[in-house]
Amino acid sequence: CCFLRYGMGGPRIGLALEEPTEEDVTQKINGISVSIEKQILPYVENVTLDMETGIDGKPGLVMIGGSGSNC
Questions:
Q1: C-alpha torsion 63→4→32→53, nearest 10
Q2: How many angstroms separate the CA atoms of 33 and 9, rounded?
Q3: What does the pLDDT look like over 17-65, one tens digit per residue?
Q4: pTM of the model
């Protein structure tokens, strides 16, 4: 997970396939190494990554949960 910017409900978070940096915390989740930027770790503590079919019929990844608020 990576920080994109702050929005009305808290930070905007995105996914990227990149090598970890010094600013990341790397954890093993369900046997997969996942790196998360330290500054957003509290916001993604209870986030679940899932696959969902969009209104266009195409599958995509979604993040469910988290500690941010929605406007």
A1: 30
A2: 28
A3: 889 999 999 999 889 898 988 888 888 888 888 889 989 999 988 878 7
A4: 0.60
